[in-house]
C-alpha cells in the first residue's frame, strides 16, 4: 500500500512538471512514512536531521513529509524539524503539489491533515514502478480493530471503490502493457461492505478473469475471519487468478488471537487452508506472524509453532511484537522482555526456514513459468542469472542456456527448476528445458526504455519476435 502511494506521489509531482533527480542534488525530497514498522519515527527524524545542513547549503530546496507518521505526528514534525516545508496526511495525498507551491509562495511551512478521504487516491496520476505489473487499490482503511494495529486510526474506516472504476484502471494498465495486476486493500475480502454486496470481491476476481491480455491476478491482503468459500471458488475457477494466497495468521494461540481482537481461531484458519488446497492443490500460501504479543505464554507460542508446522507456509513474514503508541495492545499488562521475544522469534524462524526449504525442494524437477522482472538477485553479477516470479509467486533465479533467446523484463520463460533454497528457486536449464514467450509487457518494457533514453519508440511488432529493441539495458547471460 505504501509503495503504491509512493507511485502516486511520484506521478503527481511529474504531472506538476517536476522530473526525477537522477544524481546529485534533489530540489524536492518527499518522505512517505509508514507507522506500522518499528522505529519509524526515529528513522524519520534521523533522516530529517541529516537533511537540515543539506537544505541550508541549497536555498530553495523543499522537504515534504507524508503518510501514516505524518497523519499521527502532525505539528510535532514541524516542531521537531522546523526546516520541513510540507506535512500532509494519508487522506490528502493529492494536495502535495499545491502544498509545495503554497509553501514556496508564502515562504511558510504548510500543514494539512484531513480526517477522512478527500479523493479516492486511485484517481490521482501514478508513476508506476514497473510496466509489466501494477498495483490497483480496491479499498482503503479498515473496519477491524486489531489491538496491535495503528492502521484504523491513521487510514480510517474502509472505503470501497466502485467495481467499474477498478476494472477500468485494470484495463488501462493492461492497455499500457501490464500483464500482471495485484488488487490491494487492507482487508480485501470485506470489499463491498460499503455498497452492500458481500460477494463483491469474488465477483471482482471473476471480472478480472475476462480482461483480455491480463495473465496474472493477485491480491493482498485477505482476513481469515471474512474469507468465504465464494472467493476460493472464484480463485479456483478463474484461470488468470494465480495459485497463491497471503493469509495472515498473526498467532496460533486462540487466547492470543482473542487478545489481538482477531475474530477467527486457529481451527478456522487451518480449515481455510485445507479448503484452498482442496480446490487449488498447488497453491503457495504465505502469512504474517507476530511473536511476543503481550501475555503470550510459552504454551501460546507453542500453539503458533504447531499451526506453522501444520500450515506448511511457503513464506512467512515474521515480526517481533513492539508497542505502537496509540494502540490498545500498547496499554496491556504483561509486555514481554525483549530476550524472551527474541528467543521465540529465532525458534519460529528456524522452523519456518526448514519448512520453506522443504516446500521449495518439492519444486526441483518441475517446470515453472516465470515472469521476468527488472530486479536481479544480489549475486547476479557472479551467477549471470536473471530473476522473476513463478505463477505461485516464488522467486526464481534462472540462467539462459548458451545461444538461447534472452528475455526482456515482462517476458515469460518456462524453465525446469534445478535447485532450491528456503527463499528462492534456481533453474540452470538445458536448452530443451528452456523457452521464452515474448509478451506485450516485454514490448512495453522496450518502449519505456526507449522513452527514458529519449529515443522515439519504434512501436512493437505483434508477438514481439522481430521488434527492434531500443535502449535495452544489457542483461547478463550465462557464459
Ligand atoms: S485487519 Fe489488518 S489493517 Fe485492519 S486492524 Fe487488523 S491488522 Fe490492522
What do these coordinates show?
By secondary structure, the protein is of the alpha/beta class. The protein folds into 3 domains: 2-112, Rossmann fold (3-Layer(aba) Sandwich); 121-361, pyruvate-formate lyase- activating enzyme (Alpha-Beta Horseshoe); 367-452, OB fold (Dihydrolipoamide Acetyltransferase, E2P). The protein contains 15 helices and 19 strands. The longest helix has 24 residues, at 338-361. Mean pLDDT is 89; it is low at 456-479. The structure holds iron/sulfur cluster. Iron/sulfur cluster binds at residues 142, 144, 146, 149, 151-152, 186-187, 223. Residues 142, 144, 146, 149, 151-152, 186-187, 223 line the site of iron/sulfur cluster.
Count every helix, treating DSSP H or I runs of 4 or more residues as helices: 15
Strands, total number: 19
Mean pLDDT: 89
Q: Look at the structure and give the CATH class of the largest domain.
A: Alpha Beta
Distance between the termini: 39 Å
Oligomer: single chain
Strand content: 15-25%
Please give the domain count: 3
Structural class designation: alpha/beta
- The helical percent reads 25-40%
Classify the fold: give the CATH topology of the largest domain: pyruvate-formate lyase- activating enzyme
Low-confidence stretches: 456-479
Task: Please give the largest β-sheet.
Answer: 7 strands, mixed
Q: Which molecules are bound besides the chains?
A: iron/sulfur cluster
Give me the CATH architecture of the largest domain, please.
Alpha-Beta Horseshoe
CATH superfamily of the largest domain: tm_1862 like domain
Biggest sheet strand order reads 17-18-15-14-13-16-19
- Rg, please? 23 Å
Principal-axes geometry comes out as globular
Amino acid at each position: 500500500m505504501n509503495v503504491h502511494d509512493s507511485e502516486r506521489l511520484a506521478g503527481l509531482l511529474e504531472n506538476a512538471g517536476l522530473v526525477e533527480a537522477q544524481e546529485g542534488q534533489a530540489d524536492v525530497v518527499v518522505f512517505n512514512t509508514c507507522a506500522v514498522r518499528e522505529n519509524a519515527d526515529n528513522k524519520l527524524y534521523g533522516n530529517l536531521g541529516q537533511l537540515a545542513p543539506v537544505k541550508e547549503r541549497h536555498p530553495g530546496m523543499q522537504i515534504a513529509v507524508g503518510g501514516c507518521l505524518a497523519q499521527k505526528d502532525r505539528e510535532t514534525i514541524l516542531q521537531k524539524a522546523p526546516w520541513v516545508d510540507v506535512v500532509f496526511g494519508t487522506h490528502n495525498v493529492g494536495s502535495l503539489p499545491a502544498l509545495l507551491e503554497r509553501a514556496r509562495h508564502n515562504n511558510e511551512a504548510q500543514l494539512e491533515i484531513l480526517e477522512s478521504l478527500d479523493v479516492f487516491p486511485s484517481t490521482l496520476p501514478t508513476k508506476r514502478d514497473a510496466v509489466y505489473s501494477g498495483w490497483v487499490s480496491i479499498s482503503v482503511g479498515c473496519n477491524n480493530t486489531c489491538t496491535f494495529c495503528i492502521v484504523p486510526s491513521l487510514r480510517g474506516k474502509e472505503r470501497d471503490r466502485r467495481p467499474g472504476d477498478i476494472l477500468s484502471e485494470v484495463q488501462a494498465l493492461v492497455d499500457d502493457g501490464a500483464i500482471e495486476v495485484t488488487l490491494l486493500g487492507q482487508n480485501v475480502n470485506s470489499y463491498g461492505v460499503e455498497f452492500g454486496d458481500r460477494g463483491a470481491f469474488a465477483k471482482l476476481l471473476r471480472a478480472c478473469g475476462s480482461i483480455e491480455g491480463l495473465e496474472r491476478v493477485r491480491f493482498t491482503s485477505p482476513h481469515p475471519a471474512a474469507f468465504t468459500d465464494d472467493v476460493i471458488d472464484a480463485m479456483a475457477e478463474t484461470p488468470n487468478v494465480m495459485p497463491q494466497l497471503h493469509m495472515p495468521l498473526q498467532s496460533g494461540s486462540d487466547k492470543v488471537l482473542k487478545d489481538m481482537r482477531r475474530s477467527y481461531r486457529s481451527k478456522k484458519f487451518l480449515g481455510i487452508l485445507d479448503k484452498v488446497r482442496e480446490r487449488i492443490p498447488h497453491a503457495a500460501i504465505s502469512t504474517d506472524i507476530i511473536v511476543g504479543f503481550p501475555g503470550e505464554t510459552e504454551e501460546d507460542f507453542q500453539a503458533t509453532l504447531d499451526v506453522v508446522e501444520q500450515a506448511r507456509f511457503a513464506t512467512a513474514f515474521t515480526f517481533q511484537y513492539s508497542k505502537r503508541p496509540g494502540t490498545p495492545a500498547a496499554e496491556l499488562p504483561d509486555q514481554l522482555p525483549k530476550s524472551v521475544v527474541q528467543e521465540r522469534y529465532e525458534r519460529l524462524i528456524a522452523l519456518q526456514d526448514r519448512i520453506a526449504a522443504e516446500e521449495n525442494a518439492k519444486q526441483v524437477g518441475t517446470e515453472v513459468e516465470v515472469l521476468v522482472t527488472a530486479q536481479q538477485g544480489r549475486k547476479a553479477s557472479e551467477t549471470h542469472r536473471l530473476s522473476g516470479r513463478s505463477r505461485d509467486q516464488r522467486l526464481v533465479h534462472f540462467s539462459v542456456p548458451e545461444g538461447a533467446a534472452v528475455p526482456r523484463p515482462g517476458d515469460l520463460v518456462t524453465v525446469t527448476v534445478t535447485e532450491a533454497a528456503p527463499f528462492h528457486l534456481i533453474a540452470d536449464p538445458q536448452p530443451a528445458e528452456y523457452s521464452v514467450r515474448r509478451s506485450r509487457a516485454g514490448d512495453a518494457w522496450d518502449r519505456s526504455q526507449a522513452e527514458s533514453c529519449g529515443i522515439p519508440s519504434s512501436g512493437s511488432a505483434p508477438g514481439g519476435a522481430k521488434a527492434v529493441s531500443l535502449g535495452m539495458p544489457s542483461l547478463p547471460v550465462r557464459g
